[in-house]
Amino acid sequence: MQPLILRLSQSGQPLGWIDWQDAALLYTKQRVAWTLGDNSYRFYGGINRQKKSRSYLDIDSIVAAKGIVKDKNYRITPLLTNRELFRRDQHTCLYCLAEFPDSELTRDHLIPISRGGRDVWTNVVTACRRCNQHKADNLLQETNLKLYAVPYTPNYAEWLILRNRNLTADQMEFLKARCPKERQHLFS
């Protein structure tokens, strides 16, 4: 599996993950403002017939691109998907505290949509099928279930960590420093 490169704005704002080909394009177009990290990857090209040497390009794991203020996909509130929700809640049902694979987890709305709730980070939790069916269209106080953690909206750095579980140590350190201190332990 090829590594993903963390792309930053020129000012150091994390923007997203790019593949090595997109990073190579930034390097070849001289759009790399600066780089960070302890890891770099060497990608080989073709062989020069005259020099009989092979070309290569070293790409750092964290790359700041010139001229980019915000990525077209950048959002103040990160996109809510089941994959990132389940990762936020560490694949744990927040009602029974049992861990499950993605296929056995569901998104539960604390205030059901049918009762005016919204599909937002602060109104959803990870639940196993059994607990979700037990809660049904009820409010929490109308059931005998207990919520063991308060749902929160991850900031953009947290969301980038949730999106890519194959981070290098330097990428994790960079993003973790941009997470709220009270949640940094979640990414250890």
Task: Give a structural overview.
The model has no long low-confidence stretch (mean pLDDT 91). The chain is elongated and about 75 Å long. The strands form two sheets. A four-stranded mixed sheet has the order 2-1-4-3, sandwiched between helices. A two-stranded antiparallel ribbon has the order 5-6. The chain folds into two domains: 5-72 and 164-187, no CATH class; 82-142, DNA Binding (I), subunit A, CATH 1.10.30. By secondary structure, the chain is an alpha+beta fold. 21% of the residues lie in helices and 25% in strands. The protein has five helices and six strands; from the N terminus they run ββαββαββααα. The chain has helices spanning 20-28, 82-88, 129-135, 156-163, 169-176, and strands at 5-8, 14-18, 32-47, 54-65, 105-109, 124-128.
